[in-house]
Design a protein that fits this description.
single chain; 5-stranded mixed β-sheet; Ubiquitin-like (UB roll); 7 helices; alpha+beta; DNA polymerase, domain 1
Length: 211
């Protein structure tokens, strides 16, 4: 009798362990199923978001006084729209993350990084690039002083600096050296011509005061 009871207990343990294993497996399978369901929903949402971003939309950009009708994906930056679609290549692509200022343009007179702004958000604004400030044949005062003071080396940062200096002096023609430095702190010259850039800007401010 004792052996039969022991055997029954053993069988009960086996049955319990087997039943528990089946339960755990079922719960695990259910969790996997639910997890896969959630993952599928997330994947579907991501796909829909991607499709929404990839869908081109009509926009109008007013660049240097001229309106341009374009069809662009909403994720296209202002820098890409200018350089790749409108062939306005004054703003340069260097860091592409808003740290160097080489892509500086004016938005309603205020300097902005074109690489950080979506083209679609630049609608209904006046966009001014270095091309509108002067040309090699007809340089403006800032560009002339950059040449006179040798304020450029490789020249890649120069359009951004010229545009930023224009914004600073347009707001404050009497800007001091410290104010000019502060206004240009978002622009970087990797060649190290900062002092000559500042000298050029100070000279332009001095000439503006005389005029």
């Amino acid at each position: 009798m004792a052996e039969e009871k022991s055997e029954q207990k053993k069988l009960s343990r086996r049955q319990f362990i087997t039943g528990a294993g089946v339960t755990v497996a079922a719960v695990g399978a259910g969790a996997v199923f639910l997890g896969n369901g959630r993952n599928a929903e997330k994947a579907e949402d991501a796909e829909q978001a991607s499709q929404a971003l990839e869908g081109a939309v009509p926009i109008t950009l007013k660049v240097n006084g001229k309106a341009h009708n374009l069809t662009l994906q909403p994720r296209v930056t202002l820098l890409d729209a200018l350089r790749e679609r409108l062939q306005v290549t004054g703003p340069k692509r260097v860091c592409d993350r808003g740290t160097c200022g080489c892509c500086t343009v004016l938005l309603d007179g205020e300097p902005v990084y074109a690489c950080l702004m979506l083209a679609i958000d630049a609608q209904r604004h006046e966009i001014t690039t270095v091309e509108a400030l002067g040309t090699p044949e007809q340089m403006n005062a800032i560009q002339r002083k950059f040449v006179e003071k040798d304020g450029l080396m490789c020249g890649f940062c120069t359009p951004g600096f010229v545009t930023a200096v224009h914004a600073v002096l347009a707001k404050n023609p009497n800007a001091t050296l410290d104010e000019i430095r502060k206004g240009l702190r978002g622009n970087i010259c990797r060649c190290g011509t900062f002092n000559r850039v500042f000298e050029a800007a100070v000279e332009v401010a001095r000439e503006m005061r005389r005029a």
